[in-house]
Design brief:
Elements lengths: L7 H25 L11 H28 L9 H8 L14 H20 L6 H35 L1
Length: 164
């Protein structure tokens, strides 16, 4: 692997930072006692908290992916860089970096990205519980995949550092 100006240790540290944020988000959700899938809707404040955790969790993953992209000279379309970033993480850059995301995690992250954009631009405070319930199921499927894929990428970057 070779990225111009790449600092592999910095990329690994930024993935580690994302993992710490994800740990905090998951711990907070567990601490709050996130309702089970068939539980009644939480109150408005509970729904706002869940929506914020969904947004923050996606943002932590996206930030790690952005740092990877920057470290490996991926050019992103300025007008749709969020979606372009996810798409670029599906691609292997031969001789530069391996593929970062699977098709499955890409699809799940795309769902979370769409919600984050909706939440940021429509400033909704009365979130629909059925939508949040669905997004929590997306998050529960996405997190283990994203963690595993980012961990594998991190290990590959550090392996390249040891060999280089």
């Amino acid at each position: 692997m070779s990225g111009r100006g790449l600092d592999p240790e910095l990329v690994a540290e930024q993935i580690d930072l994302a993992f710490r944020v994800l740990d905090d988000m998951e711990a907070f959700l567990a601490e709050r006692g996130v309702p089970a899938e068939n539980a009644p809707a939480p109150d408005r404040a509970g729904r706002i908290v869940i929506a914020q955790i969904l947004e923050n969790t996606y943002t932590a993953i996206e930030t790690a992916l952005l740092r990877i992209s920057q470290g490996f000279d991926n050019n992103l379309n300025a007008e749709r860089w969020h979606a372009d970033l996810l798409d670029k993480m599906l691609l292997e850059k031969k001789g530069v970096r391996p593929r970062v995301l699977s098709d499955q995690s890409h699809g799940l992250l795309t769902e979370l990205m769409r919600f984050r954009h909706f939440k940021r631009y429509y400033l909704e405070l009365d979130h629909d519980w059925e939508k949040l319930r669905y997004l929590l199921s997306v998050l529960r499927r996405c997190l283990p995949l994203a963690r595993a894929e980012l961990s594998a990428f991190r290990a590959e970057v550090l392996r390249g550092l040891e060999q280089g």
